Amino acid sequence: MSKLKFVVASAIVAMSSTVISAGDFQPAVIFDMGGKFDKSFNEGVYNGVEKFKKETGIDYKSFEITNVTQREQVIRKMAKRGGNPVLGIGFAQAPAIDKVAAEFPEKSFAIIDMVVDKQNVKSIVFKEQEGSFLVGMLATMASKTAKVGFVGGMDIPLIRRFACGYEQGAKYANDKVEVFQNMTGSTPSAWNDPSRGGELSKGQFDRGVDVIFAAAGGTGVGVYQAAKDAGKLAIGVDSNQNHLHPGTMLTSMVKRVDVAAYDVLKSVKEGTFKAGIVSLGLAENGVDWALDEHNKALITADMKKAVDQAKADIISGKIKVHDYMSNNTCKY
Amino acid sequence: MNQPKKPLPVWADIILIPLINILLALFVAGIIIYLIGENPFEALKILIYGAFGYDEAIGYTLYYTTNFIFTGLAVAIAFHANLFNIGGEGQAYIGGLGVAIVMITLDGYLPFWALLPLAILVAMLFGALWAAIPAYLQAYRGSHIVITTIMFNFIAANLMVYLLVNVFIVPGSMSPESRIFADNAHLPFMHEILAWFDIQVASTPLNISFLIALLFCVFLWLFIWHTRWGYELRTVGFSESAATYAGINSKKVVMMTMIISGALAGMVGINEIMGVHHKLLLDFVAGYGFTGIAVALMGRNHPVGIIVASLLFGALYQGGAELTFDMPNVSREMVVAIQGLIILFSGALTYMSKPWLERFFHIFSHSKPTKMEA
Amino acid sequence: MHSDLSPMAIDLRGISKAFGSVQANKNVNFSVPKGTIHGIVGENGAGKSTLMSILYGFYEADSGEIYISGEKTKIQSSTDAIKAGIGMVHQHFMLVDNFTALENIMLGAESGSILSSSIADAAKELTRLESEFGLRIDKDAQTDTLPVGQLQRVEILKALYRGAEILILDEPTGVLTPQEADQLFNILRSLKERGVTVIIITHKLREIMALTDNVSIMRQGEIVSNLKTSQTNREELAELMVGRKVRMDIDKAPATPKERLLEIKNLSVKDEYGINRLDSVSFDIHAGEILGIAGVSGNGQSELLEVLSGIRDCSEGKVVINAETITPTKHANPEQIRKAKISHVPEDRLKRGLVPAFSASESSLLGYHKHRVFNGLFLTNSSAIKTHCMDLMDAFDVRPKDPSLKSANFSGGNQQKLILAREMEQKPKVLLVGQPTRGVDIGAIEFIHKQIVTMRDSGSAILLVSGELDELMSLSDRILVMFEGRIVGEMMANEADETTLGLMMANALGKSDEKKEDISI
Asked: Which chains touch A (3 or more CB pairs under 8 A)?
């Protein structure tokens, strides 16, 4: 039955032209369980849409999900009440977007961090492995002990993708380097457990690690603090977190969800919205490493040169960074 | 002192007190809503309309109700044996695992009518197993069941993460979720069933497990009050020394009760996994197990009361979401706070208003004979 | 009535108190002259305890006035009562086990916020009280190590320490040996000599006669009579309490013991601390015989009943019924014991005998809920259960005859009759009966005694454990006395007397004088 629905929906999409007039424009954003102030992913989106609101003066509707069943309900309700575009945050919303997008073929949908294959859905994914590769190289070059660490949030494939890219970069800079990995936990609370993050970091420092990359949402705060306390280095994630502890924040692996969200809203407003998959990597400035006044003292010219070279090589395809999620292993 | 305190009339105990508790909770919630600058009456209107105002709202309300009935019954039967099962959350989670295992292995081989009973059986079995271990530890090893069931919630959560991340995940998939079951492994949605009779209603997650839940209420009522096992269970619950005197093995009763309790909680897996999501996923229990405790308290551990209390909490879940939707100032945390207030007033402070009521009834009932004397 | 010039210590005028439709006290008037001992008797539920609770501030009367020493006093809490000089010694002691006697006495009445100086003050005051009233206690002993007689003194001192001039005692002799009770009476008499007014609630008419100056008799919430003790007798008191003539003696033919039904050999029970609660107990009971077990409570009688009824395992020895050894075997649980035709009326009817929260019909199933008559394949047979309960109620005159009424809402006597009916209906070979008339009104006692004798005459062997020596002596055919888990004496009931039994219960018969000191002051 759902197959039939899909065929009908596709037919409708095919028949109707997807021109959207500006009058239909009423952005709706569905934040996921973390909430819009999760200091990480959802908050990045929040910053992007707030920026849009400030620039254009157009308000948006939003909702924070509290349980899994709500996703579909809320997305449908947003669409029903005129939401256009409807922006879903996080891979978990993909099935719901998939279903509701078929019910509202005349509206535009977008999802971040996951692919939904529908004619009116824009899917924005990031090549976290590429950015992680670069910060991995920096970690190795900054390390005096040839031991670098990784602290992940919740143990899910996405975070393993970060870890895998990081490991590749670290080994690329020096194949003798040892990479230590810990995941904070296996429940969503792992995204917001700074004390556990601090403990894991201390554990890694005790084993000789002197640079740690935290891809762990709010948990990262504990990691950065531990690095500062121990006089070691830490690497931020998602947004540029270099300013948190200048002097011990080596760099940040930035993932521009704010830009992605902003662009979706802007494109719909201007009528340039295109459905389909957008994969944002180094080439698209979707991911990058951050260099600013807070960390320039820590990045030597050699390091910068090597990383810039690697970045160019990745963009050109000379270096291939393995994506953990392509086969759920980190064998490259 | 040999005189028992004059008890409240039954209707006051089962209707008036819960009602007063809800009103008190709503009153406090209203103050908070007023303080954040919204109109409390408007908020109440949105809440009620959002829960019962139109077909989709009713569908979602009843869908939540279904979960609460299962977990509420689970907590209630344990209460009758004087056991406090806080592990509904974990038992429901593991029950869902059972459903998923059946579906993933057999959805290609068996038709729906064979899958459904099998899934129910396995969901209950898995939930029961998860409750049976703490029950065993309580009955034969003296570990307190409150502690062990809480711990088993964590074990269940971690086990499920491990299984989803490492076993059930679709290779290459982003989310730690199992594959979607084949169509013959889906419980019919209510809107689909009604459509057969040419009644068109909005598509909601409400499915036939709601009817199964109501059926379970009847079964449980019969079991607790009209079987010899229910008799033993209640005897142990009221007076363990009387149970010993009567030759009732209270250890066995603890095992039996917790197995039934866990089995009931496991039924959440049928509603969620087989009824709504059609795949195994993280955190589908979403606190229903814990809310079941409040539901049982409020429903006075009686199936009828549990249905009413479940409906109330279902309405709060659905209407509360509607509230955050329509009142931007009311955040989802606010709604959780309102739910918390209701749990506080009807759970922890259940009998707060009782002395006042007793005094009121006392004055009321006492004024009669004086009048007659005059 | 009283023409003394000095005001009454207590004067209650028109006290009424209702609990819903139940009128617990109805226009109660009575007064107690200062420095006298006043007894209050009445059946269970006659309103004695309610009245005393009103006087002590647990309940407030709906109407009526209380005068203490001539002054109108409002007593809304026990604090008010203490302030008015009223002290209460409860039936169940209200002491903190791991405090010393002194700490218990001063608890809640410390002289200041600094503990050490409070203790010093309290010790001084206690010494004064001890010498004034001749009440000696070991003030530094932890209360859980003291015998009950001593605990009661601690309670009395506690009241005196708070300045009590009026002392209320609720069933004070329930846990005492006759000798200990006599000691208590001596204390009360000496309190009286020093001007303390004593009110004693009891159902033991013998004690009323021995101790009090005046007695009030309550029936159905009302005081039916105020009498001078010297001008009345037990028979009159009993008649006033029940409202009709009561036979105090039990009408029974001499026993004609037949074959041996129950044989107990070297039965021992160790508790979880390894202490012998039963120590090599051996005896037989024959068909058509009532064997009484006497003893101060806590000397192994309860354990004996528990082992015989399968509730507790024994550590050594054996129980043979009808030449079949039933203990120790794996099957000696209450269910199997019932199948072996042993019925058990437990000592504590509210804890074991029935489930207070159950309806009468549910309680009348306790122990027999698996019987086929009450069950279908899955569901219970509600009508059979109800009929069964109605039959029991008919046979034993349980009132109100309402199977759906909560067990807790029956009076003690009716609860006990329901339990007896349930157990006797099984026509047991051996009937174990613990405290059959504890807290039961006189009318019901008569009935229960008659039923037990009928059971004996129909050929059952009956083991009777009771704390009431009167009951044991009049109901039993033979009496065994237990002390610290051992059987220390045996007498034929018609040869027994209270003094001898009392000495046996304290294990002081034929012992050295040194031993005897244990029970004297």
From this structure: B
Per residue in C128-162, pLDDT tens? Answer: 888 887 778 888 888 888 877 888 889 888 888 88
Alpha-carbon span C198 to C191, nearest angstrom: 8
Domain span at residue A6 reads 2-126+258-280
Comparing CB atoms, the residue among B226, B242, B244 nearest residue C354 is B242
Residue A285 resides in a domain: no
Is the same domain home to C267 and C121? no
> Is A75 in the same domain as A210?
no
A26-63 residue pLDDT tens = 999 999 887 888 767 788 899 999 999 999 999 999 99
Burial level of C236, CB count in 10 A (0-12/13-18/19+)? middle
Query: How would CATH label the architecture of B47-351?
Result: Orthogonal Bundle (1.10)
Residue C248 lies in a domain: no
Minimal Cα distance from B176: which residue of A? A156
With beta carbons under 8 A apart, name residues in chain A contacting B157.
186-187
Do C419 and C489 sit in the same domain of this protein?
yes
Domain boundary among C215, C242, C269: C242
A156 in contact with chain B, both atoms CB, cutoff 8 A: yes
Facing B157 at nearest CB: one of A64, A74, A187: A187
Which residues in chain B touch residue C354, judged by CB atoms under 8 angstroms apart? Answer: 242
ipTM of the complex model? 0.83
Farthest-apart Cα atoms in chain B, separation: 87
For residue A104, is it within any domain?
yes
Distance from CA of A80 to the nearest CA of B (A): 12
- pLDDT tens for A198-252 read 999 999 999 999 999 999 988 999 999 999 999 999 999 988 889 999 999 999 9
| CB-based contacts of C428, cutoff 8 Å, min separation 6 | C341, C342, C343, C460
Query: Is A186 found in the same domain as A322?
Result: yes
**What does the pLDDT look like over C237-273, one tens digit per residue?**
888 887 777 666 677 888 888 889 999 999 998 887 7
Residues C348 and C376 in one domain: yes
Which residues constitute the domain of residue C187?
A: 10-242
The interface residues of chain B toward chain C in range 176-235, judged by CB-CB distance below 8 A, are 222, 226-228, 231-232, 234-235
Contacts of B29 (CB under 8 A, 6+ apart): B40, B337, B338, B341
Query: Would you list the DSSP string of B3-58?
Result: SPPPPPPHHIIIIIHHHHHHHHHHHHHHHHHHHTTS-HHHHHHHHHHHHHSSHHHH
- Asked whether residue C146 falls in the same domain as residue C273, the answer is no
